[in-house]
Write a structure and sequence with these properties.
This protein is mostly helical and 188 residues long. The chain has helices at 21-40, 42-74, 77-99, 101-129, 137-151, 155-186. This is DUF308 domain-containing protein.
Length: 188
């Protein structure tokens, strides 16, 4: 791609070239270290996870800003106002995740737990109104997860950090393995 679109293009087709062997080993060691550290220190893992989410929300704010700039040319004021509100919402969430990662995760987990309990109670009352008490194991599991999220709000964040840390460790090991293979093929 040529011009301004070059910034949006990610080309990973040459990542496993022979010249990138050392870079892959270094990347693998860094990923392995971050994964193990986040897996052993959950509080740091929650911060890293929150900062990653914050980067995603900042990217969403940037895309929203681009759409606001495009919408101001031809769209109605209501559409532009809604796009600006989305931009503001993304930016505020990103800042909150950067500044208060633990508390934002606790709040989001608690809100998700309340929502799950509310939804399951509505389903139960809806079935009871028709005289049918059909409540499956999946509904009981969702109700239990909702209660668990309210009682232990960082449970979901710690669980996600554990899963993501294991994925980062797997990728790190894979990069180290491929980097060593490329170095041995090159003959250093």
């Amino acid at each position: 791609m040529v011009g301004d679109n070059m910034i949006y293009s990610f080309n990973f087709s040459n990542i496993f070239d022979k010249k990138n062997g050392k870079k892959l080993v270094i990347l693998g060691v860094i990923m392995l270290a971050i994964g193990v550290y986040c897996l052993t220190k959950k509080s740091v893992g929650i911060k890293v996870f929150s900062w990653g989410l914050s980067i995603i929300f900042l990217y969403g704010a940037w895309l929203s800003l681009k759409s606001v700039n495009e919408l101001t040319r031809y769209a109605s004021r209501i559409e532009v106002r809604n796009a600006r509100l989305n931009l503001l919402l993304y930016f505020i969430i990103a800042l909150l995740l950067l500044l208060f990662p633990k508390y934002v995760n606790m709040l989001l987990s608690t809100v998700l737990g309340v929502y799950l309990i509310y939804k399951e109670v509505l389903i139960f009352l809806g079935h009871k109104r028709y005289g049918v008490t059909r409540y499956s194991i999946w509904n009981v599991l969702k109700l239990f997860i909702g209660v668990l999220l309210i009682v232990s709000p960082l449970y979901l964040s710690k669980f996600l950090v554990s899963i993501l840390s294991i994925i980062i460790i797997i990728f790190g090991i894979n990069f180290i393995k491929n980097g060593i293979r490329l170095i041995n093929e090159r003959g250093y």
